[in-house]
Specification:
single chain; 32% helix; globular
Amino acid sequence: MIFEPPYIAVVFTSTRAAVDDGYGDMSNLMADLVNHVGGFLGMDSVRGADGRGITVGYFRDDEALKTWRENLEHREAMQLGREKWYDEYSLHITRVERSYTWSRED
């Protein structure tokens, strides 16, 4: 994915707890909800077999990110994540000034 800079990248790294208890449904709901936030550009997400994951969300500006951060359903998901779905997580927010992409042609 490449977007025209500048934009905001939110890097969320986490380690899942052993408890599932609705995580998949909530994750799907969050992916659907964030797609309706004006200024949300997209996301990349991976999770290893060891439970360690990285999700990077891309937002046009601080206002779009603020809208997502203050979404009530997102806030509920964050609380449930701390209570039961994650053993630990880190959040890093940065402004992307340059972005490049390359792909091999077949």
